[in-house]
Amino acid sequence: MSAPSDLLPAFASHWIDTDAGRIFARSAGSGEPLLLLHGFGETHLAWRKIAPRLAQRFRVVLMDLRGYGWSDAPESENGAAFTKRAMAGDAVKVMEALGAIQFALVGHDRGARVGLRLALDHPGRVRKLALLDIAPLEEGIGDGNLARVGRAKFMSFEAPRPETLIAQDAQGFLFDALRSGAKSGTLDPFTEALDAYAQAFDEPRRIHAFCEDYRAGEGADKEALLADKAAGKKLIMPTLALWSAVHFPENPSLLEVWRDWAENVSGEAIDCGHYLAEEAPDAVLAALEAFLS
């Protein structure tokens, strides 16, 4: 894969060996370590509009999740290599390799699910946790964005059905996902990163990885969260929930739902679609700086 135009020129590049192969990360800044994890269809560039400003106060690490961006995509069947527990292990190894044992974590979408799992499994690692546009368990929280929910279910179907259909027009599938999630219904929030997103999407091995991510989400990941809920396990670190005012219902609010999962949680809806940091970077940055400081 050739390099996209560099939208984060001040950020150093790192290749870090893990059980999944090499994980790609970028870093910049100094101060308390802060890890940012992207969502589906994106790469570390999802944070390009806020990461440079966060790097003025924190040591910011951006990481491509396994199977995404420039990170390796391990062999997997039935979601086995793409459980959020395994992906959380990648994040721990990346941060250790960059000298951080404890850190704050901000995750969006799939990255938020990795962050949630990491914080539940390794509470001593996570100083503060921000989760963007996810519910702990999707059931009972309203339909959110129906197209996104339907796409997730489709991608979790048994291989190779979704892989075969996506590969017929991978770029079209990706762009439709981005459009349907954005409040504007357009690709405008992603313009400068679109080439990088498309390049990181249109490979059979990666398309399989994305589907394995969702298969894990419907299988092992959900089972682990249900077990945590049954055991009364909660997030013990300060937690921030931010969500799309467009896609999540007001009653019950997502904050009320997260109070059942976290001992100390605050949050708010942001006037945008699913891609908070790309659609409303100023509002997201303000919320994160107030929470992380």
Automatic annotation (TrEMBL):
The GO terms describing molecular function are: hydrolase activity
Q: What top-level branch of life does the organism fall under?
A: Bacteria
Q: Give every AB hydrolase-1 domain span.
A: 33-280
Keyword Hydrolase in the entry? The reply is: yes
Q: Which UniProt keywords apply?
A: Hydrolase
Q: Which SUPFAM superfamilies match?
A: alpha/beta-Hydrolases (SSF53474)
**Matches recorded under Pfam families:** Abhydrolase_1
Tell me where the signal peptide lies: none
Keyword Lyase in record: no
Q: Which InterPro entries match?
A: AB_hydrolase_1 (IPR000073), AB_hydrolase_fold (IPR029058), Epox_hydrolase-like (IPR000639)
- Which PANTHER family does UniProt cross-reference here? EPOXIDE HYDROLASE
> What is this protein's record name?
Alpha/beta hydrolase
Q: Which organism is it from?
A: Methylocystis bryophila
